Amino acid sequence: MKKEFSGSIGWLRIIGIAEGISLLVLMGIAMPLKYLAGKPEAVKFTGWIHGLLFVAFIATVLYVYFQKNWPFKRVVIAFIAAFLPFGTFVFDKWLQKQTEA
Q1: Cα dihedral sign, 52-55-58-61
Q2: Which residues of 56-83 are buried (b: 16+ CB within 10 A; e: fewer)?
Q3: Is 86 left (phi over 0), alpha (psi -120 to 50) or beta?
Q4: Rounded CA separation 54/48 (Å)
Q5: Are 57 and 16 in contact (CB under 8 A)?
Q6: Which pTM does this prediction carry?
Q7: I need a surface site. Which of 5, 20, 26, 81 has the fewest CB within 10 A?
């Protein structure tokens, strides 16, 4: 694995990207399948996976918060980003710039 994805920050970035993809799949594919095509099982499975990734993302944010002594504001930004479509991708780019500095 590349150096930029190593350590606790790297795990946070990987989980954040996976969480962001799962949110987009849930909202962009599974929800339309449920409401437009009458296939509620799409939301059941995708929602379950997204929920696990969301919890993993928040847990990893808290782990990094305590490990790296992050300011609490950064935790709040990460938490808000997890609720917004494309939010974790924006947070990832911002985090990447922060770690390079």
Answers
A1: negative
A2: bbbebbeebbeeeebeeebbebbeebbe
A3: left
A4: 10
A5: yes
A6: 0.88
A7: 5
Tell me, what's the pLDDT at 87?
95
The total number of structural domains that make up the chain: 1
Q: Structural domain of residue 17, as residue ranges?
A: 3-100
Q: Where are the alpha helices (DSSP H) in the chain?
A: 7-25, 31-37, 41-68, 72-83, 87-100
State the Cα–Cα distance between residues 69 and 84, nearest whole angstrom. Answer: 25
User: Is 12:6 a contact under the CB 8 Å cutoff?
Assistant: no
19 contacts 81 by C-beta, under 8 angstroms: no
Average pLDDT per consecutive 10 residues, the chain (101 residues; last block may be shorter): 73 95 96 94 94 97 95 95 94 88 68
